[in-house]
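forwarding from the other thread:

> can someone predict this with adenosine-5'-triphosphate?

sure thing
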Amino acid sequence: MPEVILKATDLVKHYPIKGGILRRTVGQVKAVDGVSFELYQGETLGVVGESGCGKSTLGRLLMRLEEPTSGSVEFQGVEMQKQSTRDMRKLRRDIQIVFQDPYTSLNPRKTVGDIIAEPFEIHPDVVPKGGHRRAVQELLEKVGLNPEHINRFPHQFSGGQRQRIGIARGIALNPKVLICDEPVSALDVSVQAQVVNLMEKLQTELGLSYVFIAHDLSVVRHISDRVAVMYLGKMAELGDEDQVYERPHHPYTQALLSAVLVPDPTLRHKREQIVLVGDVPSPANPPSGCRFHTRCWKVQEVCKVEEPQLVEHPDGVSQHRSACHFAEVRTIVETTVADNTSLLFDKGVTDHSDVADPAGAPVATLVEAEGSGVPGDSEP
Ligand SMILES: Nc1ncnc2c1ncn2[C@@H]1O[C@H](COP(=O)(O)OP(=O)(O)OP(=O)(O)O)[C@@H](O)[C@H]1O
Ligand code: SF4
Ligand SMILES: [Mg+2]
């Protein structure tokens, strides 16, 4: 059994809602509301769920960018909330984050060299062999960019390249855990595949553990060993990738999967469509009992009053966790290859056309060059 590297216990984050002239607290946004799970050494835990369900908040809590309202996060058995500022600084080196938007997460006035070296400035006790410049060049190489472009600015790179820069910054301090908050959501489909492939390569090389937050179920399925499905600040289902995708037992997971595009037209008519009624309720006023009860087609009286706990349920082959009083396996036909993103992944695209130098200079440092002909991320 691999070691548990990160453990969240009953994590809660409520944001106060201020109102009136006196700006008094008139309510709470329950962004994350009692989430527990563990992340194992070397694994990728995918976190999926609709917009506003608390994925990013959870990501920030995991690396203590924000203090939880209650609950705790342990990194290798050490409870983060109990650490002094000094000890937390040390600990923070081991947990880094990669953000969604490569356009806004990089300072446009800084060179790529300065951006990637930022973690060394924040942690002066980490002195890379050969100095900062050498370390940055090595990092550029590691993420498939040309080390000679160290003095360029973010606008001189394409979206895919910028996300590679963000990843280089994320791994600069040689962390053990990388929280990836929608790292490929802003990228074109073909570029997504290349960046995900890079992340998988780095994971193997560096022994990283990933929390991979995304709303695209196909991307998450491709990269994840286990998957957590979130709904309104809570975890609805948690299991191995094949358990959650092939034998989901929470109605919400089943509905999400039924909305994923089936690429094979001969299978499309076989797939059940589960159409959810209504919008996601406000996290400031979540429904009583099971939070999904206002949209669930299986709802019973008990669901409205009694909150289901995230517990193991048999799935016919094994067992995994879900939070439903009436958990029951319902296979949603053929979701393995869900769209052309997955098709690219499944072909094992190793083409790195997104790293092509917009100025035309040769780049290719990482290329295992099979030249799949996948269109590159060519914007300058
Ligand atoms: N700093 C904050 N102050 C107040 N409310 C916040 C804050 N950060 C997040 N929220 C609220 O908490 C809820 C969860 O937000 P969060 O960003 O974690 O969701 P998400 O799942 O990452 O959504 P998305 O898929 O759109 O990125 C939302 O209702 C959001 O408006
Ligand atoms: S507990 Fe009830 S409302 Fe909630 S998901 Fe299960 S069946 Fe639906
Ligand atoms: Mg988010």
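The first helix runs from residue 55 to 62. thats all i got for now
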